[in-house]
Amino acid sequence: MDDERTEAWWARRAWALLSAVRERSPLVQRITNLVSMDIAANALTAAGASPAMLHCLREIPDFTPRCDAVYINVGTLSEDWLPSMRAAASAGRPWVLDPVAAAASGFRMESCLELLVLRPAVVRGNASEILALAVGNPSPPPGLPPPFPLPRRRRRGSPERRAAAGDGGGEDLGVDSSHDSGEALQAAKVLAQSSGAVIAVSGALDFITDGEQVISASNAVAMMQKITATGCAVTALIAAFVGADPSDALDAAACALAIFGLAGEIGMESAKGPASLRMHLIDALYGLDEQTVTSGVKIALVL
Ligand SMILES: Nc1ncnc2c1ncn2[C@@H]1O[C@H](COP(=O)(O)OP(=O)(O)O)[C@@H](O)[C@H]1O
Ligand SMILES: Cc1ncsc1CCOP(=O)(O)O
Ligand SMILES: [Mg+2]
């Protein structure tokens, strides 16, 4: 990476990529969970992309090669959908993986690892998902320290609520993260080197790495975690950015995360809670202009 990548350079890059999405309206095939279908399709449409949900195996040979990018999300994985995921990932188009709750079951972890071999351009997950994938990955690259010991899981909710619910500190297998993004940074680098994918870890601070460089994106508001499937939606936006300009998946992922977070920040100015934030975030994404993007995105080279 050259030294020219200043804050101002990233601001221009983010605007250029959002403009490319608006001009080219990339067709993004999404094989995704039943929860995120609506919010992610609306986020993509508001950003200027063209989302299409197709998961029938028989349609993939006709449809997928004509897409600009493919988005695969295992959130409501089923045995029926896995062959379609494999076929779409193998269709020769740039594709992006969201490993929702990768550690929820052996089947889900095996499926994620199998898909990882099919060379996604980007994998975006929360910290717990990226840690789980890195630990589950059987072939870490030689010479790199493994991401062990695993950071301790942070339990959700107040201690009082957890005690009342009889929470004795057992495994947390849900879709939300019980780790901070920084705790998964080493795991993300290891995973990027072993898979060849750009790995994006979302959180209060988003980290994006190709295994060498590490970029941070620090837009977004904590309330976004209270809207289901915001993670799925931002991964879909990454796919749209990759589809509009496949030349650099690291830039695409960093800029998409920052722009989605910026839309959350603007949306929060009018929101009263998660439900209205969902609406205002999508409105903000639609209304972003050059001045707002170039003065608002916070992207930086960390390493
Ligand atoms: N603590 C936080 N503060 C601010 N923004 C956050 C925080 N955690 C997550 N986000 C943002 O919320 C969006 C979804 O990320 P995340 O909640 O990590 O994904 P997932 O829904 O897959 O668990 C991202 O845009 C991320 O930047
Ligand atoms: C709640 C839920 N259950 C299966 S998929 C899903 C949505 C997950 O969305 P996200 O990963 O963005 O939190
Ligand atoms: Mg998720």
Low-confidence stretches: 163-170
Helices, by number, come to 12
What is the CATH homology-level superfamily? Ribokinase
Q: Secondary-structure element sequence?
A: HEHEHEHEHEHHHEEEHHHHE
- Strand-pairing-aware structural class: alpha/beta
Alpha-carbon distance between the two ends: 10 Å
Bound compounds, each kind once, are: adenosine-5'-diphosphate, 4-methyl-5-hydroxyethylthiazole phosphate, magnesium ion
CATH topology tier name: UDP-N-acetylmuramoyl-L-alanine:D-glutamate ligase
Shape: globular
| Quantity of strands, as a count | 9
Portion of residues within helices: 40-55%
Give the mean pLDDT.
91
Rg (CA only): 18 Å
Number of domains: 1
Descriptive report:
It comes from Triticum aestivum (Wheat). GO terms for molecular function: ATP binding; hydroxyethylthiazole kinase activity; magnesium ion binding. This protein is of the alpha/beta class. It has a single domain (7-141, 174-301), classed as Ribokinase (UDP-N-acetylmuramoyl-L-alanine:D-glutamate ligase), CATH 3.40.1190.20. It contains 12 helices and 9 strands. It has helices spanning 7-24, 37-47, 60-63, 82-89, 106-116, 127-136, 159-164, 185-195, 230-244, 249-268, 274-287, 290-296; strands at residues 27-31, 50-53, 69-73, 95-98, 122-126, 198-202, 206-209, 214-217, 299-301. Strands 2-1-3-4-5-6-7-8-9 form a 9-stranded mixed beta sheet, with helices on both faces. Strand 4 (95-98), helix 5 (106-116) and strand 5 (122-126) form a beta-alpha-beta unit. Helix 10 (249-268) packs across helix 11. The structure holds adenosine-5'-diphosphate, 4-methyl-5-hydroxyethylthiazole phosphate and magnesium ion (MG). 4-methyl-5-hydroxyethylthiazole phosphate binds next to helix 9. Magnesium ion binds next to helix 9.
